[in-house]
């Protein structure tokens, strides 16, 4: 980050003729209009290509070494993960590597996060597999994408995956062009936690078939997955199970060792590549794929990605593809934004959700053009990159170069990688997303948020992950609507010897003066709650009159917690004023904010109530009400 110079420490140069002559040369500087045009063009270019901003500020001497090391660390991690996630998506292994190549370069150019590691991830692979299962008729026949029994079905499936990636890119770019990045704020943290927990459970169960050694029908509902798993236990292959458990144990041992010491934290990224090398070596040395029947990746296409623009058309089952692309887009954006914000917070950076839409849009467009399926930010790889010292997108480019070298020279080696090792890498990677502690915390703090978490999780587990996300969002919106329709209307009392006020219970002495009612509405006053607020006002008035055996003569309405009023809310307040007036009651308004005050003025309520009865502070409104009550009491006394 560049720093401004300390101008006070700079030497003051003598005013010589040479300096004066130089300052008076009008031809040495462009005209002001031309300067503005150049500045606008530069800003426009930096907006279109965010990478220019960090490249301009990049300290090559101080940061390049860190970026090279971080990129190499992520590179050795992304290769086995990409192969594993491609198998989960029921795509050839090379497609996973393609997804870790072109999209990384595109995001480095257009993304706003310097440490986000874009590429294939488990959750998107699961959603793609589930979505294409209903789109491609022969998807059930796909058991080994690298050696398909039905090449035509696999080819149709591959084409559909590319088309979904294109649709995801189009959705992102359209949302970015409309500046709708704020939509990411509609997904609450309970929904994120619940969805990731359910997704991790389903992903883990979907990989168990590679550990037990027998085929399980494609399912995404937990109870059916467990049923089919138990039904085929008589076909259990112990060699596959023991080998897979060995790799899972190795991965967790390396992860635990890395967590014990800061000096060993670099080991955290070495788990997948370690298991990859050990598993390939064991299969090659022991000929386990021939002697013990251990399933391996098999034939794997090498070389740089093909150009797949020709696969974009024709599109079959467009409505279903749009549904799949929409669910993947939502989950991908959710995952990428949450990771990018977490890392940016640690470094004091800022993330632009709208720019992230463009970054992910161009990343998926590049993937669709060069053999990649939908991609997004990876939790594990992003935090490994950040912990390894990544300073910019150069680290991601280095990781992509390692993927490219693997495609060019190392694909024959990966053909002997056992499927149980791929499953172990996936399971070990997603188990960290399961967060039951979050549910316990939500239950203690907020039952409503816990309800959102529970609905999202249960529906995702037993109906489907896309339905789980939709029901989670729907439940959160229903709770928000309920809170809007039934806001808190609290009675306030003044704290003794101060200008502060606090909510009170009816069994306490709520006011210093009988006949005065102080109320605060917490929320907007709008069409959804105007009648409810009116009912609460009437209830509090009757209750206060009964408690003190004195009719209410003055109502002070604290508007400090009212964020907005629509025309229905304004009409309701006008009705309250008229009703109070006919009953000889006074209405005082206090603390309207900068959004509510103009509405009161434009609607005429400000003048109708009277400027002297609208106060900037609550204590002023209460003092005015007390003065009115005192004057009314003296008038009653004189009349008496």
TrEMBL record:
Highest taxon in the source lineage: Eukaryota
GO CC annotation terms, alphabetical: membrane
Keyword Ribosomal protein: no
Residue intervals passing through the bilayer: 68-89, 95-110, 156-175, 187-205, 235-254, 266-285, 321-344, 356-373, 393-414, 421-444, 450-482
One Pfam family per UniProt: STAS
Subcellular location: Membrane
CDD domains the UniProt entry points to: STAS_SulP_like_sulfate_transporter
InterPro entries hit by this protein: SLC26A/SulP_dom (IPR011547), SLC26A/SulP_fam (IPR001902), STAS_dom (IPR002645), STAS_dom_sf (IPR036513)
Keywords: Membrane, Transmembrane, Transmembrane helix
GO biological process, one term: transmembrane transport
Cross-referenced NCBIfam families: sulP (TIGR00815)
Name used for this protein in its record: STAS domain-containing protein
